[in-house]
Design a protein that fits this description.
Blueprint lengths: L12 H4 L8 E5 L9 H5 L5 E3 L5 E3 L9 H5 L5 E5 L3
Length: 86
């Protein structure tokens, strides 16, 4: 990746640079608890929560940094943060 003057990255560079590799904890769904409220998708700063055809969601672990916002804000505790096994 080449940085432009001022430390700015070229547009679209995050698609190429997968940022999930340094996470310590990863989110895991318990679909039995999920009520499909979409808060996890709306609040994810990395847009790594993706909707599925059945109305539930899944994580794109290539870009999830493990911040835990989704788990913290889930009203039904349907998301837990588990230790990432490397």
């Amino acid at each position: 990746m080449t940085l432009l003057p001022g430390g700015v990255c070229k547009a679209g560079s995050t698609i190429v640079n997968k940022t999930g590799g340094w996470r310590t904890f990863k989110p895991v769904y318990d679909y039995d608890k999920c009520v499909k409220c979409k808060l996890c998708e709306l609040l994810c700063p990395d847009m790594s929560v993706l909707p599925r055809d059945d109305g539930y969601f899944e994580f794109n672990y290539d870009f999830c940094k493990g911040c835990g916002i989704c788990a913290n804000e889930c009203p039904k505790d349907a998301i837990s943060m588990t230790l990432e096994e490397k």
